[in-house]
Fold this protein.
Amino acid sequence: MQVKDVAKVMEEIAPLTYAEDFDNVGLLVGDYSNNVTGILVTLDTTEEVVEEAIVKNCNLIISFHPIIFSGLKKLNGNNYVEKAVLKAIKNDISIYATHTALDNSKVGVNFKIAEQLKLTNTTILIPKDNTIKQLITYVPKVNLDPLKNALYEAGAGKIGNYDSCGFSTEGKGNFRPIEGANPYIGEKGKLETVAESRVEVVMPNHLEGNIMKALFDNHPYEEVAYSVINLNNKNKYIGIGMIGELEKEMSEQDFFSYLKEQMNTPMIRHSKLLNKKIKKVAVLGGSGAFAIKNAKNAGADIYITADLKYHDFFSAENKLVLADIGHFESEQFTKNLITSYLKEKFTNFVIFNSGINTNPVNYC
């Protein structure tokens, strides 16, 4: 098994095309063609984690956070980033980061938080824009079903819990082959009219390459007529944050106790309590001040996130409670999610969950 095989499996749940523009995801250190001896999964890649990988004979680290984020101009070992990268390179260890690609996954970071809190009726808090396209093409009626099936097999026509979704209409297409053409139907210099079907399917951005290859490989015409249209539809299955409901409503204080226990956090910074029951809960792992407005608009009773600044707490405006549980604490179970997923996909391969607590924040 090679690094590219693990990356391909990771990108089934966290396509890199859905990472935020500011992010640095994918293979940060190493070569996709390297053979993998073992996999170590971590939240952060530190020098200590790289040492753990060496001890456990793992030459691939799957890290949630990217160790290289703002770019490197030198590699002299002058800071913790350079030290970790140098140690990885010296020991031929590859580092792959998923970060906001997994944040935007419906089974990613925020799914795991919702699962820890046993939330039901969960939906994406901020659906992502510009992730869906529409493919339109024209094919001889007799070739309609084989082409549609090939497109579906490549990933087109999937909407939520439905697949093989498409639309076709019948009509007549006309064309005239000219010099140099090798027509599937018709003769050079002669206008040809053919019973054709117009085919329309949606396709996710991250599978566009596979779907277009399926179109060209399975369409009978020498020249394929097609259109690809960017859709402005929000994708309710891809995006950041999640909102759901508790099975039973709780008082604010009871919920805080529950939150500390379920999220293994020693303290919670929060906005003014409203003396209201908590039922509808919004979550966003990591730095989530930007989504306070979304949580309010969604009718959340409480919004759980991290890294809130002093003035962010004013944004609650007595409409909901803001709860900052800590950056590491909000994302800590992501490591378990990745490890469990990879073990399901690679049943006969060594995959370790890092035993190192990489939280740089301490409490007293």
Observations:
- The CA atoms of residues 106 and 237 lie 6 Å apart.
- The mean pLDDT is 96.
